[in-house]
User: Fold these one by one.
Assistant:
Number 1:
Amino acid sequence: MKSSESTLVHTETGSKVIRGSKTIETARTKGLSRKAKDNLAGYLFISPWLIGFLGLTLGPLLFSLAASFTDYNITSKMNFIGLDNYKRMFTMDDLFRTSLFNTVYYVIFSVPLTTAGAIVLAVLLNQKIKGMKFFRTIYYLPAVLSGVAVYFLWMQLLSPSTGLVNTMLGWFGIEGPAWLFDPEWTKPALLMMKMWSVGGGMLLYLAIMQGVSPQMYEAADIEGASPWQKFYYITLPMISPIIFFDVITSTIGAFQIFQEAYVMTENGSGGPGNSLLFYNLHMWNNAFEVFDMGYASAMAWLLFIIVMVLTAVNMKLGKRWVHYEGGDGK
Amino acid sequence: MKRGLAVILAVFMLIGLLAGCSGEQKAEAEKTKDGKVIVDFWTFWGSETRRPIIEKIIDDYNNSQDKVFVKHTFLPWGDIWTKNLASVAAGNPADVIVNDINTVAQRAENKQVEDLSQYIDDSFKQKFYPHLWETVEYDGKSYAVPFNTDTRLLFYNKTAFKEAGLDPEKPPATWAELEEYAKKLDIKNGDKYERVGFYPLWGSVGASSWMTNADDGNGFIEDGELSINTPKKVEAMNWIIDWKKRLGEKTVQAFQAEFGSEQANPFIAGKVAMWVDVGTFYTQLRDYGQDVEFGVAPIPAYEEGSGNWAEGGGFVVEIPKGAKHPEEAMDFIKYLTDVEAQKHWSVKNYDNVANIEAAEAALNELQGPDKMVYEASVKNLEQTKMFPVPVEYPDYHSRLNPHIDNALLGKTTPEKALKQAEEDIEKMKK
């Protein structure tokens, strides 16, 4: 048990353990240096994750890339067909275009709306008023609730004649639309639903706003700045890193919209007149309804490329407007 | 010492993880302690009503012999077939599974299901309704055995008929009569409808059913030929659109959004006087609509003598490709589709079973309204058409439905919609 021999040394800052030089020699004689041993232990500890990543993430990822060049149908076929799947998307599949349009429509509206909504809400909830904790909890609550139950709740709220939304519009003499039953209104209905859950983003903004130094606002007050000026020249630049983060993650999230349409349309069909046939829903149908896994894989990789490019553009543009305190933005 | 312990611990964790992944347990579980072969049977029948019925059938089978033990695995609707596919691909599927009747050929083509021809002879085939047996044949081989089927009937509210001055023993026989009756059965309060006599797209019926009904029972693809853009089908769509115009888009959407099942079903709640649904809709009427005095009739014919064509669906039992015990599985399938089991299923569910003798035997056991509905549905099988999805057009529904939707929403005309649908589907031919 030589390796456990060590000396306890008392220092000014406390006590620490200094191992004797014998220990190192013992390790060397066993063929592995201490560093290698440490590394080995480290890798072994993370091995569940490593195996999971290699087997369950990287493996399938590469497999789906390979499958996208074949007519793979899960059970019998896997013939190499080159770029046919990719060609088919652009030349033969009308539903591909519909689904891409619906998805882009959703991204274009949902990302700015939810970002702005979350910021406005955070500003309102950042006031020093009594009972603010209560309101913060209330507004955050919808972000905690999620999943199918919420979609069912919204289906009730959006019911044309007895739903709460149209009943409330009725108080003001407005006859509400049929929402999920009218192709003109299905996407706005989903956007409205999305706005309900901006609490998640709100919490991030609130956290960073709390960190903005009050001296800056005091200085601005002395200079006679209006509330709007304070928001525009102080708050906005200070929270810009979070805006940046929020825009990137919500863009990625919006491109992947699936559940809402799958749950809220009849048989997951994509709604009246395909108005809610989103990219991922069309992909899912190809994969699990028609078992055209090769084509679905190709669609998945195209989506990956689209999201990659958009994120890269965001990163590039981000340098212009994101303000990093105490750094040069790199 | 501590470091050494850490390494050992990590190694154990790794071994544990790998052991967890291996399929050791599975191999042991294929036989019971007393040596019976375990046959894993996947169904989506997990409801309070259905589960005891199927489990009794399984128990009876298990007690009837000493070679096979059938284990029932319930998987929720929607999950069951995705899971089946994954397990077929992984080479470890169930032994028997309940699957959709209209897509057997697809699975045969994609090698997801075992060929059962070696176990099946002509005398076995003849036990089943021929229009059902056709759906399980592909390329001259049999890939499944029909289990149950359904058909659509017109349920009508006799009390409402009397109130409207109609003869409750004379349901509408043609489309013209259906319209005439429906108008009499409507109850309007100012602008708002309190009761709608009839609307063709409510209930378990869609535009495609009416288009088939008008077109002498012809579906969208007949013997491999597209038959989508036909004059009769265009006419049927225009007919549906006229209903919508008369009632108003708002009424239709408002009613539709509030439909539910059981007490909230609009026919049971008395909000709609005539309603097309499958035979088993009767169980809801029996349990939640005790006060509803109703009658059943075939779906009205397009015109006198043109046939009361209805669309049918249903389920088959089959052996997924690569199942370990096909012989034992087939033994169980034969039991499941034989007279005794089928009769039990039928009497308890009022469901149309595929075995002809069982269907007729069930009829003799039922009484009163049970018998009335069941008899009507069995009789209706003669005018019921199955529309198996052709392998050349595996996803034709996803191309067709949006065009039908667009026409019904008034975005385009039925002529243009069906013409476009036919062109789109032609392009997708495999």
Note: Residues 23-28 of chain B have pLDDT under 50 and may be disordered.
Number 2:
Amino acid sequence: MHMLSQIVRYRVGLILGLTLIIASLMVPGFFGMTTLSLGLDRSSTIGIIAIGLTVLLIAGQIDLSVGAVFALSGIVAISLQPSLGVWPAAIVGVLAGTACGVFNGILSVGFKVNALVATLATMLIFRSIAHWATNSQPVGGTDIMFSVAMARIYLDIFTVRSALFLAAILLLHLWLTRTVSGRNLFAVGSNATAAEASGISSSRTVFLGFVFASTMAGVAGVLQSLATNTGSPVFGSDLTVMVIAAVVVGGTRLEGGRGSALGTLGGVLTMASLTTAMEFQSVPAYVQQVVAGLMLILLVVLDRTVRARPRKHAAAVATA
Amino acid sequence: MTNTTAAIQSEGTNGRFNRGSRLVDLLSRAGLALAILAIVLYGSLSSPVFFTTGNFVNVMTSMAIVGIVVVGMTFVLVVGGLADLSVPATIACGAILSLALQPMIGPVPAFIVAVSLAGFCGLVSGILVGYVGINPIIATLGVGTIVLGIVQAAVGGVIVYGTDPATAVLVKSRIFGIPAIVLIFLVIAVIGNFVLSRSFWGRWTFATGGNYSAAEASAVPVRAVKAGAFVITGLCSGLSGGLLGLTLQSARPLVGTGYEFSAITAVVVGGVSIMGGFGSVPRAIAGLVFVQILTNVMVLQGVRTPVQGFVLGLLIAGAVALDVALRKRGVA
């Protein structure tokens, strides 16, 4: 049992390693700088949303509306470009994401609606607004050169997006492991009543978690729209399962109280290299969806069945 | 706050939806009837086509397709299973397979195979939720993604068309002026109501949703009951998808998109508690009638589709928030 729980503990690394081996066998030149930097660039979309969702999941909540927020904030950022200019429009786009998070927070903290149901409803609402605002047509931006600049590769490997993502992961790691508010987050997620009793306002923490998750989805949406110079109401419709799968692969528990920034990084890279490998083999999009769904289900089942029995190890792992 | 698990676990301490307070009960029931009456009144005043037979048949037909899913979804909510998000996938499974298999094994076996496969998908979700103990929304979201992918892969990701016009005529036929689909829906609703309110299975469903530990202690097979709700929903939405496919004589992979929301909205608006342990099929159908007539009035008024989605989303959020508020007041 000890062996097994060790495997479970380091499964992120294990899964990532396996995926990388498979990917390098399937894709010639997988470890070439160009492939790596492109892979990293596209993984940063999932990654930035995953950062927000990691925080929210640790707090014991979930947000199913991130895909819709992703689309909506991108549309806001692109369609305001003619009147505000590129930068202010981008900021308003991110703020639109924040506003969505506030709405989610009010619903689930203020009205005490179950987070899954609340964000299911707001997913429908935000997606409808996105279709409404754009007449269900993609909108184009004003400055095509800006998206060229977004795609430029610095230092052989980083694009603006992937650098932002990696920096954000580092900040998240420091926040979760070194600060009081990071520790409070874990406390709220593992036992809200106990956290409340020790003087942590759990509803405030959860509310801010929702705002943070939607803001990050907004950032990812704005970056994606800037990079493609397009805002579309159908952007991100298949992102939700991908992102939740990435976060869960990274060892964050759906029930809250456990998770880490580096785990999420591992999960995101796993999903990205899987996608790259499958696309290279021209596997159809719906089969890729099957793989993402299977990963999600298998890991959640693994988490349930293995973690539940060896209580002592589980406790040790949880504190590690 | 682990809302989902806490909601399931704390059922015992928080108490159930208060059945003692008749006032709250009456209010929620009469409120819906009044709302339906108001929307019918508004519809008949604002649009000349609202009270025509053609429009009535249209509303009934679209209500029947969603309604079959609603019957299954009621079981999921009452048993405390939150919601089944694999409905679009199981509908697509029913619609695509019942058409795609027609040339190979004939229309009736194709229909049966499609519905039983949809039921099997429900069984997979049910085992994951009931026996493994995975959060229902995550489990059904994952299973739905997988099933939709497999179904698409099976037919090569294209639109399939029906090859047997006779079945289409049969499905579209009318008995005493009522479309056959509507009759099928009524039969399913009556069976569903009987099972939920009169049979041992229904009692177990209420017991499991109301107080999981107490039900388990009273030797109710809680895991099987929970899994069963998802099997029922899988079968129902497979049936609904099959009928939809036969009616349209074509099915694309995204044919079922949005039906999960329509069904959840109907059930929740009908006053079935998302926390489990409370609700009935007639209530859910009352919610369905309200939502369908509201949608119909919006369509007749020329309201655009996105706005309709917006209103549906607000309705879900509002109805659940109201349920939580009423529950609290009832307990206090």
Note: Strands of chain A lie at 139-140, 230-231.
